Amino acid sequence: MVILGLHFGHDAGIAVLLDDVNTYFERLPNESPFMLFTGKVCSNKLPAITHIDGSSRIQTVTKEVGGLYKILTHLKKIAGISVVLNTSFNGPGEPIVETPKEAINFPLSSKLDALYIEGKRITKALY
Fold first, then answer.
1. Which three-class secondary structure state does DSSP give residue 69?
2. Through-space distance between the first and last CA atoms of the chain, rounded to whole angstroms
3. Cβ atoms of 37 and 30 closer than 8 Å
4. Exposed site from 7, 17, 38, 105, fewest CB < 10 Å?
5. pTM for this predicted structure
6. What is the pLDDT of residues 20-68, one digit of tens each?
7. Do 97 and 82 share a structural domain?
């Protein structure tokens, strides 16, 4: 499977609530807000985000992050797990998207079908 031109196992990681990180991972510093560290996956509930060596690149999420924290908190309430696949938002050889304008322009030069930003769904059909 390919997402934004990346193959699973390359440049993909996860986002998890900081309060739950030790439920799913070990050998990780207390916090990893910028997805700079890997930890050993210690839960069999996460096969899709587990690299071949049993690790995953981890972003810990706190309330200060805002929207992503709300999504993970809600996911935990409805599914019992506060972990999602997370990757950088950029195309191959391109810098990371930093502004809403760059995000809105991204689908024009990529295979991305839809973009959700500020609660709105934007598709190529709208261009």
1. helix
2. 26
3. no
4. 7
5. 0.75
6. 999 999 988 778 898 888 999 998 888 888 888 999 999 999 999 888 9
7. no
| CA atoms of 24 and 43, how far apart (whole Å) | 5
Whether 15 and 34 map to the same domain: the answer is yes
Query: How many domains is the chain partitioned into structurally?
Result: 2
Do 119 and 79 lie in one domain? The reply is no
Among residues 119, 89, 93, 88, the alpha carbon closest in space to that of 105 is found at 89
What tokens were used for 110? 């990529």
Statement to judge: residues 98 and 110 lie in one domain: yes
Between the CA atoms of 25, 15, 68 and 91, what dihedral angle is there, to the nearest 10 degrees? 180
**DSSP assignments along 4-60, one per residue:** TTEETTSSEEEEEEGGGHHHHEES--S--TTS-EEEEE--TT-GGG--TTSEEEEEE
